């Protein structure tokens, strides 16, 4: 993805580089969503395991 830039929403911004196709945006969005989902799931699993362990020791 070197050399690819997404322009800002500012009307004064200059568009430089290569704009992304809708398919590329969808692919990037899907990868980000998957990564965020996996990280949140991992954090929730760790939190739940920790909570269960604390309750078990009471």
Describe the protein in words:
- The structure is a single chain.
- By secondary structure, the chain is mostly helical.
- 60% of the residues lie in helices and 0% in strands.
- The chain is built from one helix and no strands.
- It has one helix spanning 22-56.
- The longest helix is centred in the C-terminal third of the chain and has 35 residues, at 22-56.
- The chain is rod-shaped.
- The protein starts with 21 loop residues before the first helix and ends with a helix.
Ranges with pLDDT <50 over ≥5 residues?
Answer: none
Supply the helix-strand structural class. mainly alpha
Order of helix and strand elements from N to C terminus: H
Biggest sheet character: none
Radius of gyration: 20 Å
The strand count comes to 0
Quick one: overall form?
rod-shaped
Distance between the termini: 52 Å
Q: Average pLDDT across residues?
A: 82
Oligomer: single chain
Number of helices: 1
Q: How much strand? A: under 5%
Q: Report helical residue fraction.
A: 55-70%
């Amino acid at each position: 993805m070197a050399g690819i830039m997404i322009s800002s929403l500012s009307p004064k911004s200059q568009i430089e580089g290569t704009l992304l196709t809708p398919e590329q945006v969808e692919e990037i969005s899907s990868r980000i969503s998957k990564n965020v989902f996996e990280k949140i799931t991992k954090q929730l699993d760790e939190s739940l395991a920790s909570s269960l362990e604390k309750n078990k020791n009471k």
